[in-house]
Specification:
The protein is mostly beta strands. The protein is built from three helices and eleven strands.
Length: 206
Amino acid sequence: MGLQAVGGLKMLGCSKQAHWSHVVPLTYHLEISDWPMPMRRFLCCFVLLLSGCVGYPTSVRPVEDFVLDRYLGTWYEIARLDHSFERGMQQVTAEYSLNADGSVRVLNRGYSTDDAAWDEAVGKARFVERDDLGYLKVSFFGPFYGSYVVFGLDADYRNAYISGPDHSYLWLLSRTPQVSDAVWQDFVARAGAAGFDTSALIRVTH
């Protein structure tokens, strides 16, 4: 997601306006106070967004006729809403590939301007409902999942609009480090109509 570990792993509650599908119980306690700062700041992308909640805002709809094989590969993070777990991160990419068990391997990578270092993390994604619906859950910590909802996708699979569990989480991903003005305006318009605060979007440099 773009999906990154929350700095300090602060657990967030699920939005009351979210579409509910599946909630994973919180049964693990994570001791990370002694981990290196880069690991704490960028441990998983688009995950632990909600401490196990994989719902999504009622104002967005996952894309239909989603084809995973076409979605695999490298994506560049073009823009996002700000969060502590991604603060100061630039040159963020997400690479998706298939695991032997049919799940999706997620490799997130970005450059921390605060730490002057590259951070990366590997996770796993699975479909929540159907494999032709752009609605997945991603985990970097066993039972802890975060929603990954593709609510906008062009016919060529070049640009994707991603929502998390609520209106606090929004990303624009692209196959290229930059997008055209037309793509940007469409993303802002659609996200704004869906209730996201597009005035707070951060443009990511590459």
